[in-house]
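User: Hi! Is it possible to get a structure for several chains at once, not just one? Here's what I have:
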Amino acid sequence: MEALQPKLALRMMFSEAIPISCARTLHAGRKRRCATGQGMSKSNNVYKDAYNRGLRLLDETKSLPSEPELGTLLGVSRTTVRTILARMEETGLIDWNKRSKTVLREPRPDDFFPEEETDTLAEIIERSFMRRLLAGGAEAGMQINELELAREIGVGTTSVREFLIRFSRFGLIEKRRNSHWVLKGFTRAFALELTEIREMFELRSAAAFAALPEDSPVWADLDRLEDEHRRLAREIAARFSEFSELDERFHRLIHRASHNRFIVDFYDVIAMIFHYHYQWNKAQERERNEVAVQEHLAYIAALKSRDLARVDAVCRKHLKSARHTLLTSIPEGRQPLRA
Amino acid sequence: MEALQPKLALRMMFSEAIPISCARTLHAGRKRRCATGQGMSKSNNVYKDAYNRGLRLLDETKSLPSEPELGTLLGVSRTTVRTILARMEETGLIDWNKRSKTVLREPRPDDFFPEEETDTLAEIIERSFMRRLLAGGAEAGMQINELELAREIGVGTTSVREFLIRFSRFGLIEKRRNSHWVLKGFTRAFALELTEIREMFELRSAAAFAALPEDSPVWADLDRLEDEHRRLAREIAARFSEFSELDERFHRLIHRASHNRFIVDFYDVIAMIFHYHYQWNKAQERERNEVAVQEHLAYIAALKSRDLARVDAVCRKHLKSARHTLLTSIPEGRQPLRA
DNA sequence: ATAATGTCTTTTATCGGGAAAAAACATTTT
DNA sequence: AAAATGTTTTTTCCCGATAAAAGACATTAT
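Assistant: Yes, the chains can be modeled jointly so their relative placement is included. Here is the combined structure:
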């Protein structure tokens, strides 16, 4: 209807179209057509991922537990458990007869399914989409074309549509009714809006945390996290890249104290942004993480002191440096990066 | 995988399955198969809705403007405009020859497409879903079945899935990977979490609003809204039900002053809840709206005064009564409704 | 009688296809 | 040449179909 925005399709920079895994379905001897693209309706990544995790159980025991127990352990249905057991028997890993599941040999590296085949379609689409977004050349106002994205990634349009709908809550894209999506861009404005909410939410959560009763289980969780921080601090030179995972767990614990689903859910936005931001921007990663670990330790100490003013101060300080880190990595216009 | 929650499917209370409109496509003489359910892939509600709005233009003029202009006016593409013009000619409403589009007669009531046929699928699904949710019997922990919902509403599963994904950001449902959705319920906890965020966001937005420069266009918008409030206040007895629409416009104007997409977007959650809540709970609607209009007028006056302390106080007062109204309508457990 | 296994049914995830709507391109009119 | 109309192509929206995965039911073993 209107063509105010430049019609610049969001294209891949380095065009290695990730091919969807097309390996034959091994269990039950079924085959899936592939390059032909016909009839392939659902990949069996749930099975493959659970199978790989199941293999690791074989190292530890001489025989496997019951089917329902395995289901709980692997987080899948009994149907999938049985498919896994069937393959383990087929490849001579176990002897399976009703209740008895005896381990015959240790798994070899080639028993595992390749990592790429264990990803969900949503993960594949997200990665592919974010790569394009961050690879540069993805400017605000660009149109996003479902069909083109689907073709380039090699998936159906439905999956892309569903991904974009889910992704839209991150505030980076917006839908035009009966028409295309518009990229709003990973801009300085975005980062500022994001951090504004983050700071509001985290200050409130931190205060709620400090006010939690002595017997709340979160204090034990906090102790464990403190330990992990101390250990990481000691070996920071070698393990600095492990920080981002710890960072997320720490902040999620704090946010959960708010007991507010909107605050807790909002951390998904932050986590997503930080996840890709960390991957993208490795400059001074070690120094940044070293500082952050120390800030976390001060933060934890403040929480344990239950001194609300102290918590507030420490939290503000940490959020300020987090914001600074994020903003530094988003050059916009010709403004100098530092004040 | 696990069956901890009661398997109580979310069923309709009054089972009048809204049948999707199956009227023949009138333009171009095409027909759509229907009860058979075959091949019907997309309804032409965009065309029908735009056509109805187009009919109202005929009252005012002796001839219609150019196709692109009509497109802008009706918010549709030229393709749809031409389909509309074709039908208007077919039914003798206009004489259409290239640039000349002469109005021959005024539209009659039966020229309009029925209202139901102008709704989008998303609207149909949302209404149907919310009716069930609010009709009672929809308790927290219930499972939501995509296939069943789709069958009962009479639409495809894809549309239901997409709706549920979009709807999930309201915090009322949650997805179990590779499995069903879980209803979290329209509970007192939900209302409290919602209002907590709302209050945080609105206080901040109101402060930002009051700090806006003299020459910002929002002051004119505010003046217009003040007028509308005064007029409504004068005729409140007859027009009290028009308040909710005004309410939404007023609060959206305020939230927009935050210049934060997350704050602006969050008002969608509030608006959705209030929309259905107002429909559901008509108790003391007149009195409530009368109070709210007066609170809005005080709020507007405070904003115009630019006295931040006064804005804060008035805003808090209004939010408090809004929260009270919402909570009153959600009886939970056996607690008394009023303190 | 409880809990496992064996079997069958239902639901979810995903694709391809097709009509509606948008958008792009080509041609005419002012 | 600018802006309209006429024509063709592309994209969005939505459905039905199908394999994977979950779930329910039936049977057997402890």
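The interface with chain B takes residues 1-2, 46, 71-72, 75-78, 158, 161-162, 165-166, 169, 171, 178, 184, 190, 193-194, 196-197, 200, 204, 259-263, 265-266, 269 of chain A (CB under 8 Å). Residues 25, 30, 32, 39-47, 76-80, 83, 98-99, 145-148, 157-158, 161, 178-180 of chain A lie near DNA strand D (CB under 10 Å from a C1').

User: Great, thank you!
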